[in-house]
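Thread: quick sanity check before group meeting

JM: Hey all, I'm pulling together slides for Thursday and realized we never actually wrote out the predicted structure for the chain we discussed last week. Dropping the sequence here so it's in one place. If anyone has concerns about the input, flag it before I start.
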Amino acid sequence: MKKTETKPASAPPRMELAILVSDRVQIQDVRLIRCDCRIEPRALAPPHPPRLQANFAHEASTQVGPDCTRIAVVTRFRFSAIREESEKHEPCVGIEALFLVTYAAEGLTGLGPEHFNSFGALNGVFNAWPYWRELLHSLTVRMGLPAFVLPVLRIGTPMPPSADAKDVPHDVANAGTHSTPQ
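JM (edit): ok, ran it. Output follows.
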């Protein structure tokens, strides 16, 4: 299938633009298309469990098929953690995953890239979020860390995707709690 690519929105996604697309689509599939994880031995050194300061971020890229009957959103999620007592402030844990969310569409005439980019940044991320939550929870346990419970996706006015300014600190040792960004 030949695809026409739209670039990630440079401005924050707008709900009213995304709604015009979401009213005309049905979700078809959510697939994990890439996953990378790493942990350095210092992350597991005593004391255990480690106290980690975690950050996570996300972004989305949207593609629309040339006949406007399919929309694909690639969502990228990132998680990193720094050991709190470490003098180095470099991440000792890193997880990144890409999910492909596909939608069947009809009647997309009259909509432009700004509609599709807003839709991908809001709906695409929202639809992939539970899959990311489960993967992150499972991987942190398999890596020998306390289970990380990803908080609720906050929909608001995000920073541009490349800025990593959406990173939210999270205390991994106290799953389910998070501190406010500094």
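AS: nice. The mean pLDDT is 81. DSSP finds two helices and six strands in the chain.
JM: adding both to the slides.
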